[in-house]
Amino acid sequence: MIKFSATLLATLIAASVNAATVDLRIMETTDLHSNMMDFDYYKDAATEKFGLVRTATLIEQARAEVKNSVLVDNGDVIQGSPLGDYMAAKGLKEGDVHPVYKAMNTLNYAVGNLGNHEFNYGLDFLHKALAGAKFPYVNANIIDAKTGKPMFTPYLIQDTRVMDSDGQSHTLRIGYIGFVPPQIMTWDKANLNGKVTVNDITENRAQIYPGDAGERG
């Protein structure tokens, strides 16, 4: 049994109460579906319901409210509007940047996750599109059928500078990991069959031990 004196215990409690804290705001966009402008092309009319141009204003407002924040995207970016369909039909040459990423690159994303709709136009187009992103992407459960290894970066550990409540700067290690539903093998069978396999999310997650990620990150 470990015994503490009353004086030591009071000192520990006081230190805990007075300790500086770090608050971190995590912001996420999802299902942008290549809607960059606040315009509904199907109705040929402006809209207030969607558009990254509107979301960007909210992101900047949210950032200005706090000392520390990170911005992530949860996928379904390159498909879902006439812009997405047009770019898929037009194709991307080496060095081309998809309009979606021209917009997203201005917002300082920390990381992106692949959504199921990223595979609607095939793997070749997806890889060319991702090359234009100025932020990294993660996915842990899509496996290259030829190599048996993850096709994308499974996870990332990023060193992020943050400021505590006393105004002191610290480095916070933030881990990011991403998954897609295995059902993409059915939904996009024509694009994926024979090229990739997709592991069960729960089983795949259990194989990635957090302590191990810290050692390898």
From TrEMBL:
InterPro entries named in the record: 5'-Nucleotdase_CS, 5_nucleotidase/apyrase, Calcineurin-like_PHP, Metallo-depent_PP-like
EC numbers: 3.1.3.6
GO biological process: nucleotide catabolic process
Signal peptide, first to last residue: 1-19
Keywords: Hydrolase, Signal
Pfam families xref list: Metallophos (PF00149)
Chain ranges of the Calcineurin-like phosphoesterase domain: 24-195
One Gene Ontology cellular component: outer membrane-bounded periplasmic space
An annotated Gene Ontology molecular function: metal ion binding
Signal recorded as keyword: yes
Protein's UniProt keywords contain Hydrolase: yes
Domain of life, per lineage: Bacteria
Enzyme class: hydrolase
UniProt family annotation: Belongs to the 5'-nucleotidase family.
PANTHER family attached to this UniProt entry: 2',3'-CYCLIC-NUCLEOTIDE 2'-PHOSPHODIESTERASE_3'-NUCLEOTIDASE, 5'-NUCLEOTIDASE-RELATED
Protein's UniProt name: 2',3'-cyclic-nucleotide 2'-phosphodiesterase
Source organism of this protein record: Klebsiella pneumoniae subsp. ozaenae
